[in-house]
């Protein structure tokens, strides 16, 4: 019995990390622009695709492929910001409508990937082999350690960034009091770009490290962004830590539902969680009442 | 002239709030802009510091035209704008709030920090005492001091104060203005003060500008505007336009 | 006689030419297109269009973004499938039952979620769509799971089984015409204006008497009904359904069509034809269609942010323009005294207090905005409320209006306790309101804006308004009549057909006043009516307000323009820090020491 529970905990944490990364990117962009960036999942997918192209097709080792993949994700995120999000906001389109439009951005990227890479699931080799490691009876694949480890590293770096660097503190301030940020002379538009860079990095990382386990293909973006979005909603749309917490919560609910009730119902549980939170506490567990 | 404003017209969307305002300020002067609400006082500061773009008119700072310049450029020049309502970054520490006041000069952030942080602490010792506390936990008066202190971080030359006394107890207001007085003397600060409390503002300033319905009604020495029947009439509805007293 | 009739018919066709073109196209389509394939495309198109009619009203008019309409589509389809294929019911009965059940589900969803902010509501509908899809996929015993439900019977009329494509095309085409007709009518009359009002300025909409929650709820259920019917039709057309047809892609496609298509049904219709038509015809590119739609969405939003409709019908076709000639017959009819509602021009003079506030206290999380404020206003008075910044004047207006509920105290209006009433209920009892910053409904003409003020004069619901026969027409005529009189009163009749955002600031303020007058209120609450007006405009305003009072309407106004308030008011009420500091004639108040201190600071 203990092994079962540990197994579920392991998969809960692993899945939770990916969702946490998705949610984190969404929250950071939302804090500065009020746009819900639905293309975040597609960015993650691009990370996975880039890894596939570099690693499987060109046999480039992960040490190089991962950073390159991250750069690719950042480029796409910034491009979508410059070409679509900012121009539309400048034209006076409301953030809600721009959010809908980012869905379109995601779809375009998906279509492009589908045309270039086809419709079959694309495999990528795990970073350090696939011999399961025995931890207290639970069997854990090395890639899962990569996932959790890189997520933790990313979160630590993010924490350091927002709490220790001046640019990070300024961005925190921007999310806190946009009016004061402007009056203080912050370069607000440039800071919008930084939030997209951050989301690109974080989303891309999630896509990249999870690809060896779950294969990649043009369709995974939608699923990821919905989960990320639920994570952000549960944790609090304005709170980065909340998004991380939300991701882990979803991870746990899904894992235990799959383990103890039925694996078919696990996606359903997530949506029901979302509906409950929206009804009972729309600002999320850690958000402020609007 | 440190600041010259020529026929400034500004507003929001279709709404014109300021109509062809013209005035100027010399170095070290304190100009109090008073008038009832809706007269355009805050809009004046917003149009000058870059929070909104003027619809027409020109603004010169140190003989350089800055009309329509965005906040990030005006702050770098040494124009500080303290918004109405004791705004701070609640989730950041007091000291971070202060240092970010110089963020517009971020290429030289360290230099500005070293130069100015001690000055701020000298004049607002309570901020030094609470330097590591979250700004959200400060009292109203302390937040106001923090807001003012932030502007000092950028080699301040021209200070815009938007209703600094709003929401503060009279004793605190007195204390605040005493500190401002000292700052003004030591650094030859030029201050454009917007206030609804005409009495306090006129006692602090050299000159006064009385606005009503977006136009300058009176422009004269502060002393002469205190207890002035004309001013009273303008506030309470029976005054007429007059050039200088 | 026949000449009059034929000219009436001609004018009808001229006004509704789009509908006649549509009917003609539908009739001719299967005859001209004799290929099996294209007729099928036409059927799929028809089903999309039916969905689109409901969505256009919901999303483009009322501004509710729904990412989950696939749920209602699926619900109708699955109920039809299960009841007919598995339980042997008659398809028509199954369709009706399925639609009914879907409406119940839509209602149950709307009660808790419709009151959320737009963004959260959109998220919730996303969840709804996902839930429906997952249930369809996983409840295998009921829904057949991924394999779906086969063997669904066709519709039949008596002994004629409708299995030929052209038969189904005509059947569905009838529904298309019906729903397009309903949608167009709704969009152009009272409810359509109300939805537009809700989208552009919900606060003002409430102040005009529109019960936002109720109207949105009904509209949401209506759009769910329409989707459910379309779902049933799909089931009996393909005779097989599976979860594949009800994914999030379907909801996105609907949304994209509605966003690109714009504010009226014809724009969205054309967009649907183009998008769905192309993707069906070029079936090989089926998988690319979503990306293609995304690209189109982005391009369209750059090229025409207001949607295709704005490009095709630049004068805001969505609201049918009436020329003076169209107006006349209606006016003549209403000169009959029996039909005439009480008009703005003559109201009896009354005695006593129209409004009384006793000991009103309101605080916001610790900050006290109003503290034991008491004031009373007699019929036919003009009372001005003044006070320094932050004194609580707007809070006071919002308490009277119902936007805020006081912690303590009572508001009495015409001898009724209205303390806890909501803004739309206050509008119902005779309270009109204008706002400090312009709260007009952008995207509608001046006349339409003012007609929203007359919203409460009508009671027709979605279906009655959709068919637009009898009572709704009468109500519409009355509302228009009252609106025109209101515009006449303010000298704005020649601006009636202009888009309201093209007017000057001063004119917009007058339109807002006209809109409030069209409510035929007993009491007018005006929040800084002179803000932003130059001296000529202020003079004009002063004269207008006097004329309004002469018609028997009581006025309470908050103002900073002292010359105006002092010259106009019978009594002036002064607030400072949420407390009353003076209440008297303008003369008394301007000499009051406390007032002087409040505005100018301490004496000496």
Structural descriptors:
heterotrimer, B: 245 residues, alpha/beta, Rossmann fold, six-stranded mixed sheet, 10 strands, 25% strand, globular, C: 604 residues, ABC transporter involved in vitamin B12 uptake, BtuC, 2 domains, four-stranded antiparallel sheet, 12 strands
Task: Characterize the structure shown.
- The complex is a heterotrimer of chains A (290), B (245) and C (604).
- Chain A is 77% helix and 2% strand.
- The longest helix of chain A has 32 residues, at 2-33.
- Chain A is mainly alpha-helical.
- In chain A, β1 (133-135) and β2 (138-140) form a beta hairpin.
- Chain A has helices at 2-33, 40-57, 62-90, 95-117, 142-164, 166-176, 178-183, 188-214, 220-235, 240-261, 266-280, and strands at residues 133-135, 138-140.
- Chain A has a single domain, classed as ABC transporter involved in vitamin B12 uptake, BtuC, CATH 1.10.3470.
- Chain B has a domain at 1-25 and 35-78 and 158-163 and 192-245: P-loop containing nucleotide triphosphate hydrolases (Rossmann fold), CATH 3.40.50.300.
- Chain B has helices at 41-49, 71-77, 94-100, 109-123, 125-129, 140-152, 170-187, 198-204, 222-225, 229-236; strands at residues 3-12, 15-25, 30-34, 56-61, 64-65, 79-82, 158-162, 190-195, 207-212, 215-221.
- Chain B has ten helices and ten strands.
- In chain B, α3 (94-100) runs parallel beside α6.
- In chain B, the strands form two sheets. In chain B, strands 6-7-8-3-9-10 form a six-stranded mixed β-sheet, sandwiched between helices. Chain B has a four-stranded antiparallel β-sheet with strand order 2-1-4-5, with helices on one face.
- In chain B, 51% of the residues are buried.
- Chain B has 245 residues and is of the alpha/beta class.
- Residues 317-342 of chain C have low confidence and may be disordered.
- Chain C has a six-stranded mixed β-sheet, with helices on both faces.
- Chain C starts with a helix and ends with a helix.
- Chain C is built from 26 helices and twelve strands.
- Chain C is α/β, with parallel strands linked by helices.
- In chain C, α4 crosses α11 (212-238) and α21 crosses α22.
- Chain C folds into two domains: 12-312, ABC transporter involved in vitamin B12 uptake, BtuC (Orthogonal Bundle); 353-430 and 521-600, P-loop containing nucleotide triphosphate hydrolases (Rossmann fold), CATH 3.40.50.
- Chain C is elongated.
- The interface between A and C is large, with 41 and 38 residues.
């Amino acid at each position: 019995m203990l092994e079962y529970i540990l197994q579920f905990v392991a998969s809960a944490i692993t899945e939770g990390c990916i969702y946490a990364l998705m949610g984190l990117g969404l929250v950071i962009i939302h804090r500065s622009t009020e746009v819900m960036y639905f293309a975040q999942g597609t960015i993650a997918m691009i990370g996975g695709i880039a890894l596939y192209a570099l690693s499987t097709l060109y046999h480039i080792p992960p040490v190089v492929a991962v950073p390159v993949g991250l750069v690719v994700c950042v480029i796409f995120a910034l491009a979508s910001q410059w070409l679509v999000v900012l121009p539309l906001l400048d034209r006076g389109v409301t953030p809600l409508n721009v959010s809908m439009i980012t869905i379109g951005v995601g779809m375009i990227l998906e279509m492009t990937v589908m045309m270039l890479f086809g419709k079959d699931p694309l495999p990528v080799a795990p970073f350090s082999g696939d011999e399961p490691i025995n931890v207290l009876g639970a069997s854990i694949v090395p890639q899962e350690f990569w996932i959790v480890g890189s997520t933790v590293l990313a979160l630590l770096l993010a924490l350091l960034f927002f709490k220790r660097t001046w640019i990070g503190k300024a961005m925190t301030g921007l999310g806190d009091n946009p009016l004061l940020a402007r009056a203080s002379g912050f370069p607000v538009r440039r800071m919008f770009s930084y939030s997209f860079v951050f989301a690109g990095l974080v989303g891309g990382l999630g896509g990249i490290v999870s690809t060896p386990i779950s294969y990649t293909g043009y369709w995974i973006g939608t699923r990821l962004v919905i989960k990320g979005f639920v994570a952000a909603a549960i944790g609090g749309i304005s709170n980065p830590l909340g998004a991380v917490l939300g991701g882990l919560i979803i991870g746990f609910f899904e894992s235990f539902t799959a383990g103890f009730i039925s694996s078919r119902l696990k996606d359903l549980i997530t949506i029901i969680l979302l509906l409950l939170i929206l009804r009972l506490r729309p600002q999320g567990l850690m958000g402020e009442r609007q | 002239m440190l600041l010259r404003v020529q026929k400034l017209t500004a507003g929001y969307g279709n709404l014109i709030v300021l109509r062809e305002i013209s005035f100027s300020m010399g170095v070290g002067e304190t100009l109090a802009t008073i008038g009832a609400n809706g007269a355009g006082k805050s809009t004046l500061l917003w149009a000058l510091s870059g929070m909104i773009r003027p619809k027409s008119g020109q603004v010169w700072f140190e003989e350089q035209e800055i009309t329509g310049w965005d906040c990030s450029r005006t702050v770098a020049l040494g124009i500080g704008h303290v918004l109405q309502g004791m705004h701070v970054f609640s989730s950041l520490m007091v000291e971070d709030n202060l240092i970010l006041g110089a963020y517009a000069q971020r290429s030289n952030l360290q230099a500005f920090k070293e130069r100015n942080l001690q000055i701020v602490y000298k004049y607002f010792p309570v901020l030094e005492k609470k330097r590591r506390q979250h700004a959200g936990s400060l009292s109203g008066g302390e937040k106001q001091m923090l807001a003012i202190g932030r502007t000092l971080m950028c080699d301040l030359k021209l200070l815009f104060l938007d209703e600094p006394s709003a929401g503060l107890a009279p004793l605190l207001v007195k204390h605040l203005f005493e500190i401002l007085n000292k700052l003004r003397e030591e650094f030859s600060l030029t201050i454009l003060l917007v206030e609804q409390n005409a009495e306090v503002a006129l006692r602090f300033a050299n000159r006064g500008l009385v606005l009503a319905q977006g136009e300058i009604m009176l422009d004269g020495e502060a002393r002469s505007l205190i207890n002035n029947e004309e001013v009273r009439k303008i506030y309470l509805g029976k005054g007429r336009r007059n050039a200088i007293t | 006689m026949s000449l009059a009739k034929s000219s009436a018919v001609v004018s009808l066709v001229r006004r509704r030419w789009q509908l006649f073109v549509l009917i003609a196209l539908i009739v001719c389509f299967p005859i001209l297109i004799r290929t099996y394939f294209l007729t099928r495309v036409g059927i799929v198109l028809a089903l999309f269009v039916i969905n689109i009619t409901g969505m256009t009203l919901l999303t483009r008019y009322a501004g509710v973004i729904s990412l989950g309409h696939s749920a209602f589509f699926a619900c109708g389809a699955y109920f039809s499938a299960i009841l007919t294929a598995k339980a042997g019911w008659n398809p028509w009965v199954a369709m009706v039952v399925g639609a009914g059940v879907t409406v119940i589900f839509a209602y149950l969803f709307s009660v808790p979620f419709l009151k959320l902010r737009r963004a959260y509501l959109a998220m919730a509908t996303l969840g709804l769509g996902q839930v429906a899809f997952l249930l369809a996929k996983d409840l295998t015993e009921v829904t057949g799971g991924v394999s779906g439900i086969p063997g669904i019977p066709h519709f039949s009329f008596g002994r004629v089984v409708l299995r030929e494509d052209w038969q189904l095309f005509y059947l569905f085409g009838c529904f298309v015409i019906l729903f397009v007709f309903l949608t167009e009518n709704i969009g152009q009359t009272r409810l359509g204006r109300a939805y537009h009002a809700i989208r552009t300025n919900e606060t003002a909409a409430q102040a005009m008497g529109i019960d936002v929650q109720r109207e949105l709820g009904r509209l949401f259920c209506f759009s769910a009904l329409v989707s459910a019917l379309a779902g049933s039709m799909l089931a009996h057309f393909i005779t097989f359904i599976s979860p594949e047809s009800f994914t999030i892609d379907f909801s996105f496609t609907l949304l994209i069509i509605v966003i690109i298509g714009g504010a009226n049904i014809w724009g969205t219709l054309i967009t649907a034809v183009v998008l769905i038509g192309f993707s069906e015809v070029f079936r090989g590119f089926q998988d690319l269609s979503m990306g293609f739609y995304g690209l189109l969405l982005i391009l369209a939003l750059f090229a025409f942010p207001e949607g295709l409709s704005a490009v095709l019908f630049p004068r805001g076709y969505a609201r049918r323009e009436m020329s003076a000639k169209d107006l006349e017959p209606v006016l003549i009819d209403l000169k009959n005294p029996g039909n005439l509602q009480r008009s703005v021009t003559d109201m009896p003079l009354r005695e006593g207090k129209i409004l009384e506030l006793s000991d009103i206290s309101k605080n916001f999380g610790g900050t006290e905005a109003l503290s034991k404020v008491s004031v009373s206003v007699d019929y036919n008075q003009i009372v001005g409320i003044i006070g320094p910044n932050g004194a609580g004047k707007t809070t006071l207006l919002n308490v009277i209006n119902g936007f805020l509920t006081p912690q303590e105290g009572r508001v009495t209006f015409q001898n009724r306790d209205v303390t806890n009433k909501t803004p739309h209920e206050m509008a119902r009892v005779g309270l009109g309101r204008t706002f400090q910053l312009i709260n007009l409904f952008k995207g509608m003409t001046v006349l339409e804006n003012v007609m929203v003020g007359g919203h409460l004069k009508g009671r027709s619901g979605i279906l009655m308004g959709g068919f637009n026969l009898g009572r709704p027409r009468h109500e519409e005529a009355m509302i228009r009549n009252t609106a025109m009189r209101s515009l006449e009163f303010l000298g704005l009749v020649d601006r009636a057909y202009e888009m309201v955002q093209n007017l000057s600031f001063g004119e917009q303020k007058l339109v807002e006043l006209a809109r409030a007058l069209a409510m035929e209120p007993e009491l007018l609450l005006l929040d800084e009516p002179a803000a932003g007006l130059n001296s000529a405009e202020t003079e004009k305003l002063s004269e207008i307000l006097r004329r309004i009072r002469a018609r028997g309407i009581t006025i309470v106004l908050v103002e900073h323009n002292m010359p105006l308030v002092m010259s106009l008011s019978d009594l002036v009420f002064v607030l400072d820090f949420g407390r009353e500091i003076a209440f008297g004639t303008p003369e008394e108040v301007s000499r009051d020491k406390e007032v002087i201190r409040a505005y100018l600071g301490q004496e000496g």
